[in-house]
User: What shape does this take?
Amino acid sequence: MPEEAVRKAELTVVLMFFALLALTGIVFGGFVVQDFACARASHGWPTADGVILSAPESGAGKVRYAYVFAGENHEGRRITYITGRFSRDEAKQYSPGDAVTVHVDPDKPSASVLEPGGASGIFLFGAFLSGLLIFVGAGGMIRTLMNGAGEEFPGVGMFFSGAAE
Assistant: This one.
């Protein structure tokens, strides 16, 4: 294979790696923001009486609960949002038949949670990590594209050949 074709293939692989890194940061950031927004909003959601149908101890693998909201029967599985898992002092134990208070999203009654809220610190950490992934990914793509255009930058040869210039 000619040297130029090998170089273009290497640049393509590196470019794809950095693009994937940036895309991962964007998707992760969207997930963290959505999770935290729902966790914060769940504090103000109306409540409904519910009952635990099954718990991990009974072999179902996840907690299942039923509740009635606005005259309709619903079933849920969410105990808390991801950012809320780190803000709890200790996990509650649920057993089948336990009466529970279910926090229900009034705009989407099929969305519910047993323990509302989320941790701001976890949200900030997730947002920082997401931003870092986007920054490194975008920066790597820019540097790779500039290097592929024939621009001379100190240290680029070290990146591709493994040796300092």
User: Anything to note?
Assistant: The radius of gyration is 24 Å. The chain has two domains: 1-43+118-165, 46-115.
